[in-house]
Amino acid sequence: MDIETLQRAYEREKAKRAHAESLLEDKSRELFLSYEALQKSHDEVTAAHEELVFKQKQLVQSEKMASLGIISAGVAHEINNPIGFVLSNVVTLGENVASFNSLCTRLKGVFEAANDEDQLRASVSELATFYAEEDFDFVVEDGEGLITETTDGIVRVRDIVAGLKSFARVDTDEKTVANINECIESTLKILDSQTKYACDVKCCFAELPEIMCFPGKLNQVFMNLIVNAVHAVEEDGVICVSTTQESDSVTITVSDNGKGIAPEHLEDLFTPFFTTKPVGEGTGLGLSISHGIIEEHGGTISVDSTVGEGTTFTVTLPA
To answer: pTM score, two decimals?
Structure first.
């Protein structure tokens, strides 16, 4: 093979290599542009997801505050009742303390007159008269009841405030350890003003282990289910709240003997903004948000209802 032929072969190979390098460069540029577009799309999706999570938290908190707003009047009434008799008892105890101060003053006079028989007799007589006039036997007996009643009233207010604080708190991004029975009990304390005049609430709690959860969010679920049950029952209604434990799960049921839910509505119960209540009553978000909260915990929520007989909501959470 002569030099000219080798030269042409070399030129062809060189041209092929240049063409291949050009194609490779184009592909690299194309891949880089695709990567940039993909990265931009990823960033947009991430931002949209973060905004969605933020909006969801806002929605959950707004629904929680709306629920508190609905029951706030009842809660205020529940707080005013014990505050009223606590104030009355404190006033009475103040009057009793003033009487005891007077009694102590007269008793001091008896001690000071110990060396003068006539003065001592007069001081003892005055003390006895004052004791009888003020009816100290009743004052002492009544004082014990006043103190017990006042203590009960203050504890009642403390429990209501603690329940409100527990319910209204915003959960952190990390789960914490909590007892489901205690969550339900704190929710029932907040709802006492609604339940005690409308129905009879029966609780049957099994001994449960503490589980990892978002307690504030679960409180909202329990509130939604119990409030719905209160609205469903009529006079002499009964609501049963129970908990049980399986090997790897905790089950909560809220049952009522109310009017029940029509079969055509059961599939839509957990749909956002769906409600069977009259316009202006309810947002239609309670059960939808509850469904999302239970799914977030890796659990399930289901409903079984018969028109005219009642409804049962069943929540299952991983233990």
So the answer is: 0.60
